């Protein structure tokens, strides 16, 4: 049931849009996107239906890891603006009914951070305890997150005279998050950005954050999760409506603990990595059952918690929770070239490339995204069908400039190509063929379709709040599911196969007086007296059927 006051749980039914300021819009012609440029594009996001903008790291950084190697938690990188520009973006977004969240990257810092510079100077430095050190590295090391780049998680620092731990690049030393002073610093960082108006944080590598402590007493599991509980308490003391969105790529039985149990005392939202990976297995097989089984096994969460659904994120498309054979299936289907794979676990391509640009299939996937129980998260450019730059390696392949128009620099920047923050996609997926301006004027474009999905999602609160159930029907290629609240019900159908199907459903509490209205097409149908209904579904087709019973006064 919904709590009486849901105003603080705005993220339960948000439409989240992730963007990199440096590749979004350049206002001053230097080739790099900036906060002022983002401010010029907030009206576009509001019209798209976005209700929450997630800003990837914009902090001062050597940019070894796309800004996730932070050198100052309290600043803005000069290349994208200053604190005044950030405050103006937040104010303008709020004026348009949108929230703003930012990345909280506290598993590690840059080696250029003042804390690490002070730590390496002396073993007696108070900052020495901020990081994890050893005179000799452990014989058995946990695998590095970039195994094809780093050969371990420990590196020797000549000046410090000790080894330090780094779960990612060696230029990113791990913080000792078990240390009380480090936890105080993290709380101060959060308080600073909340004071400037941000509405929450996306917690980068949350599982690594709580596991990175090298000190502390008591039970390890309890000690680790205490950090998230402390951060959540510090958050709500500052602003009761602020949220933490966690990146926790673990199986459900382990991931569920990061919500914090009853009343959601840790992360408010988590990305659903198991369902995301099962989605691509279902797409590869044209069989909805892997995704259906995964969703059916998804743990129920407290009303104060939520799952975040996504098709693509800003990193590689990770497939590490699939079996070796399943991963090989997805690789063969969507990344047949070795250059399209990364870290032996992921794919560097965007969805339209993987689906060979089939508009029916692409639209079916985004319809599914918005109809799954939880909160949808979009990566910038998904709404127009942007593709990756196949000549750019690794994670950077999907972090190309936003394609606004056919003008020079894709309407992103007037600077020469050599000065751009990243190269623009070329060829058939480039801005001459895929851009915002053209699609804004095309009522049948992907942009218009995604905007419609966002609007329908926002007027269908049972998707974010309702009880989820997979519906039985005879076709393995079709995912039929329902979301039901006390006074509303939605039935969603999605066909993973290229040919059409006649879907037969038995709907409880429905009869011939019930109307099923497809809110995407406007077509209506009625079940028989026993609640049975037959619905034709095209190849790669999708329908959102709003169940309207006699006396229902909701808008169709």
Q: Give the N-terminus to C-terminus distance in angstroms.
A: 23 Å
What is the CATH superfamily of the largest domain?
Glycosidases
Low-confidence stretches: none
**What is the tally of beta strands?**
22
Main sheet strand line-up: 1-2-3-7-8-9-10-14
| Assigned CATH class of the largest domain | Alpha Beta
Rg value: 24 Å
Outline type: globular
What is the fold-level CATH name, i.e. the topology of the largest domain? TIM Barrel
> From the coordinates shown, what is the CATH architecture of the largest domain?
Alpha-Beta Barrel
Helix content: 25-40%
**Which whole number gives the mean pLDDT?**
93
Notes on the protein architecture:
- The model has no long low-confidence stretch (mean pLDDT 93).
- Strand 16 (478-484) and strand 17 form a beta hairpin.
- Helices cover 27% and strands 17% of the residues.
- The protein contains 16 helices and 22 strands.
- The strands form 5 sheets. Strands 1-2-3-7-8-9-10-14 form an 8-stranded parallel β-barrel. A 6-stranded antiparallel beta sheet has the order 15-16-17-22-19-20.
